[in-house]
Amino acid sequence: MAKSRPAAPPVGLLSLAHDRACEAELAEAIDAELNAGRLPDLDTLGRRFAPYPTAIPDITVEVAPLHLYDELSTVQLVGAV
Known about the structure:
Blueprint: H1 10-20, H2 23-35, H3 42-48, H4 66-73
């Protein structure tokens, strides 16, 4: 007798849908698995909906020197009531 995989926990599927913003696509994939008589596998679906490394931009953030923040905190509006 073939060993069956445990079903993906619903919370894991909800988390995957939220984290990857793929609710509609994930629902279609789950429907396809269920229609084929298989239970959805969270690991397989996680790999399927993983972000493409090339789609993640490389961003460089230049941080301002801390003394500039001190200067900003002393700014006052002229004529403020």
